[in-house]
Amino acid sequence: MKIILTQDVVNLGEEGDVREVKDGYARNYLLPTGAAVIYNKTNAAVFASRAAAIEKRKAEKRATAASLKERLDNLTLEIVVSAGESGKLFGSVTSVMVQEELKKAGFEIERKKIEVATHAIKMTGTYHVVIHLYENESSHVKLVVISEAEVKARAKAEAEAKAKAEAEAKAEAEAAAAAKAAEEAAAAAQAEAEPVAVEEETAQVEE
Fold first, then answer.
1. pLDDT band of 186, cuts 50, 70, 90
2. In terms of domains, do 44 and 76 share one?
3. I need a labelling partner for 7 at 20 to 30 A (CA). Which of 20, 37, 140, 166 fits?
4. Domain ends where: 151, 171, 202?
């Protein structure tokens, strides 16, 4: 069936594009959801009249996609999962999980635009997820898959390091305070000794 897309459809085309698709795909999804209309002279004329507006929207989408790509390319997501001691996952990383992490990071991305190779993510480690943006523009987001055990171990190590740093800082502060007290005591002792020395010198002169 020949149709005209009324909006962008991933892996099919953009708003205003004319495409040949299977009848079932058109009748069961594209037409009912309003993503496309049947191609005929009337609809073709309507979209021809909207060509300038459609092209303007495309230019805006390209600019937005370029900006979003730059931000996503510099992003690192971390997903905590259940895994065995060897690092093998008890489940799999899904696009829904990635979408949730992206949302936490401030990015609203449609799930259908997130490509996760779940068959390849069977172990903890570092991977890359493809985010389809606009036209042929896409971003590869760094994804760190870490086990719950690793998170707990890391938290414990950080807590121990913090406690050690605080103890060292306290020891340094106490040492500094002790040194200052010693200096003040020495200064006080010297101040008390000076008048006595002056008196002795005066007595010697008078004799």
1. confident
2. no
3. 140
4. 151
Residue 78 lies inside a defined structural domain of this protein:
yes
Decide: 163 and 99 in contact? Cβ < 8 Å: no
Strand 125-134 and strand 137-147: the pairing is: antiparallel
CA distance 172 to 146: 37
- Domain harbouring 33, CATH code: 3.40.5.10
Would you say residue 32 lies in a domain?
yes
Output 166 or 194, whichever has higher pLDDT.
166
Q: Is residue 136 part of a domain?
A: yes
Whether pTM > 0.70 for this model: the answer is no
Query: Can you give the chain as a three-state secondary structure string?
Result: CEEEECCCECCCECCCCEEECCHHHHHHHHCCCCCEEECCHHHHHHHHHCHHHHHHHHHHHHHHHHHHHHHHHCCEEEEEECECCCCEECCCCCHHHHHHHHHHCCCCCCHHHEECCCCCCCECEEEEEEEEEECCEEEEEEEEEEEHHHHHHHHHHHHHHHHHHHHHHHHHHHHHHHHHHHHHHHHHHHHHHHHHHHHHHHHHHHC
Q: At residue 31, does pLDDT exceed 80?
A: yes
From 151, 178, 198, the end of a domain falls on 151
pLDDT, tens digit (0-9, with 9 covering 90-100), for 80-130: 888 887 888 888 888 889 999 999 999 999 888 898 876 778 888 899 999
Domain range spanning residue 19? Answer: 2-49
